[in-house]
Design brief:
Layout lengths: L10 H6 L9 H21 L8 E6 L4 E6 L9 H6 L26 E9 L5 E8 H9 L6 H8 E7 L8 E9 L9 H11 L12 H11 L8 E3 L2 E2 L7 E3 L5 E3 L2 E9 L2 E10 L14 E6 L2 E3 L19 E6 L17 H51 L4 H17 L7 H9 L4 H5 L5 H17 L3 H15 L1
Parallel strand pairs: 1-7, 13-15
Antiparallel strand pairs: 1-2, 2-6, 3-4, 3-6, 4-5, 7-8, 9-10, 11-12, 12-15, 13-14
Length: 484
Amino acid sequence: MESKKPVIGKYILDSLSIGMYNHPLMLIREYIQNATDAIDEFRKRNGLLGYDPKIEIQIDGITHCLKIIDNGSGISSNQSWEILHDIGNSKKRLNENRGFRGIGRLGGLGYCDSLIFKTKFFGEELCTVSSWDCCKLGKLIKSDNHYDTQGILKEIISFEQQKYDRDIEGHFFEVEMVNLNSSRDMLLNVPLIKEYIASVAPVSFNKKQFSFGNEIEAELKKRIPNYETYKIAVNGEQIFKPYADEIRLRGDKKDRISGIDFINFNIDGRSLAFGWMARSKLLGTISSHSNFDGIRVRRDNILVGDNQLLSEFFREKRFNNYLVGEIYTVDEHLIPNSRRDDFEDNKEKDDFYESFIKNIGLPISKRIRQISIERGKARINSQEIKIIEQAKNILKEGYLADYQKRVILRELMCFKIKNDPIDENIDELISGIQNSKHHLDTNGNSSNKKNRALLKSIFEILYKDYDDKEKAIRIIKKILDIRI
């Protein structure tokens, strides 16, 4: 019986493009990943002398176009057809390159009308251009036809090689997405893209706002094989990681990084990952607007998942967002999955998460809870001091409302029951409050009984109905000042 080749249907293109990524910005990560591999390849072949590697992202809101350009190795003219058009047949190696599956360049197909790849190899005269008609692709996938993947590719791709009329030593790879159509125009949102790249891409720390950047990078270069950072610019502005010495917390509070701790993640003497964690007072959840809340995991200095990847390994998920830091994988078996939102399932993944729980998840959860308990005690002590001051003021000036007197007495009795009140004369204070008189009766600043009764009623209503008791007291005292 004659063997037949299996048919790869047209819907695979839909699955490998827009179906692969649950967020449009992920395709920018894929193109940056390919660009860094191209820069590394050029470095290996030509060395570093006189070479200024860079990745430029150009966003044009008027024409609805986005370009990603790198000055890496480019693709030679005799290999360009296969490399640009083969699917899942990458020549890259798993342990040497960031991208190795051969599908990342398809990410733009679902987000523009036309996807154009342009490239030139160092020393060649030819420039290669491959254009993909994304509108036609969408129509062919939805229409009632019998195209397979190869048939559709022939219909939507145009390929040409032209003589390059500039410097023959030029080398580059350019991705151009024409007439973008992403959800809520995310791929044209310059601030959003800058923030995303700062969080995800292999860029360096901003040493001006993060004074620990040099210390961390020096340690990472010693501990992480092939650790690199890259100059990436968006519309001419170089992007840096978002870390800063000052930490903004939710509720307009602030904390500050006082130092850095480095952590090894090992199982049975085998190194899985290495990371850093900022020292802080752990005062609360870090504001998400800082863009550096939570411990983040990176492979080849590119983010895996997001800032919540490790949250489930704490006693409470929110504890991860009290922290600032990064973990860089070292073990070659910790391989990001196709969407790069986690690692492939294997023993090394389980070992890594187990090591994280042991080194950070459990001890930090315990520490945060202890700090929370101590802060709670401090708040209680502060409240005790406040109530006792109010009680002493009542003994001196008289109370302003019967309800106020009852509240103070109840609080003082609670302090006594605790057996460790701040004021050792608590019994004397309670007795004094029980026998205290109303302010108007004590100071006599109302001319007759009828006026005093009316004011007492007003004060009672004000104090009872106001949630802010201190504000109620201020209003009552203002009334008294006017009355006097």
